[in-house]
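Researcher: Quick test of sequence recovery. Tokens follow.
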């Protein structure tokens, strides 16, 4: 995985000349209750984006930690961008990447409040620059994967975990601040390489 932050300008040019793909993670800064940090969505998006970029041998380009999250406004720890601000920033980032040689942009999103803006900007960038923009709403993919494995008691904390599969994704990044219900955690799938293909395969921890 190569981040644009860690390399020089000539190296960026060389990288995009070899493989004109850029991966951009999107999350949010918002309250996640007493058991998860406010940066949960941003951390999760970064973890997934890094893995995607490594597999694609693509360049990772940060958008920033903030997203569109007015639904959580008023809670300590929540910082929301307006849609216009979010979309203007992303349009500028995408345009700059196109100018330096990117022809494929991959948006990795872990916050549903960003969906409409990401889809709108993706459509606009494709139309104006004749590039390919792929939007992956990774939070929904993770939710589908984990919901088939979760078997937890019907408590408020457990129910919150059912709705948010974020904690196992971010736990390696923030072990001190993520405090998941251990019963739910123990029943999430473990991802191991398939012997035949080398691709990740879900296996039951039980």
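Model:
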């Amino acid at each position: 995985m190569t981040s644009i932050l860690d390399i020089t300008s000539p190296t960026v040019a060389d990288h995009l000349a070899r493989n004109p793909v850029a991966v951009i993670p999107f999350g949010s800064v918002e309250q996640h209750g007493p058991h998860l940090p406010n940066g949960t969505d941003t951390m999760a998006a970064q973890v997934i984006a890094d893995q995607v970029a490594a597999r694609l041998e693509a360049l990772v380009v940060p958008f920033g930690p903030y997203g569109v999250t007015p639904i959580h406004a008023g809670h300590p720890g929540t910082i929301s961008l307006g849609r216009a601000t979010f979309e203007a920033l992303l349009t500028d980032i995408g345009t700059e990447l196109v100018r330096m040689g990117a022809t494929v942009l991959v948006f990795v999103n872990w916050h549903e409040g960003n969906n409409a803006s990401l889809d709108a900007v993706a459509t606009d960038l494709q139309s104006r620059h004749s590039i390919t923009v792929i939007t992956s709403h990774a939070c929904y993919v993770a939710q589908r994967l984990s919901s088939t494995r979760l078997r937890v008691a019907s408590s408020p904390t457990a129910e919150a975990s059912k709705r948010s599969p974020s904690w196992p994704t971010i736990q390696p990044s923030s072990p001190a601040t993520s405090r998941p219900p251990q019963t739910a955690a123990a029943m999430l799938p473990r991802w191991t390489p398939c012997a035949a293909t080398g691709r990740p395969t879900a296996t039951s921890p039980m």
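The helical segments are 9-18, 40-56, 83-99, 115-129, 138-147, 156-163, 166-170, 182-185.
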